[in-house]
Recover the amino acids of this structure.
């Protein structure tokens, strides 16, 4: 589904949270995001069980505000995502049923 959305809206590349977030879930990115597209939040019932946080690829406006606040450098523009973590594109989208 995410790929279909990008085919229709090629300007929306979205950012991706990758492996360094697993077990970290710092949440500074949640506060930095202007469109509230990083989940689950700390007050979300899913937060405790989630292994990491995820970016909604449809809602993300590609602003990059979340990148510098991440203490473990887990967030990447899609074009900059290391190849070893390409599967995280789908993992982020899947959390939102994309
Ligand atoms: Fe939110 Fe901007 Fe980061 Fe997308 S790039 S998740 S809109 S802060």
């Amino acid at each position: 589904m995410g790929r279909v959305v990008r085919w229709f809206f090629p300007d929306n590349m979205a950012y991706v949270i990758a492996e360094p977030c697993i077990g970290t879930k710092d949440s500074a990115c949640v506060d930095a995001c202007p469109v509230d597209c990083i989940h689950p939040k700390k007050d979300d019932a899913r937060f405790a069980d989630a292994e990491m946080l995820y970016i909604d690829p449809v809602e993300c406006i590609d602003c990059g505000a979340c990148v510098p606040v991440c203490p473990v450098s887990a967030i990447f523009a899609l074009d900059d995502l290391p190849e070893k973590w390409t599967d995280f594109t789908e993992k982020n989208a899947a959390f939102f049923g994309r």
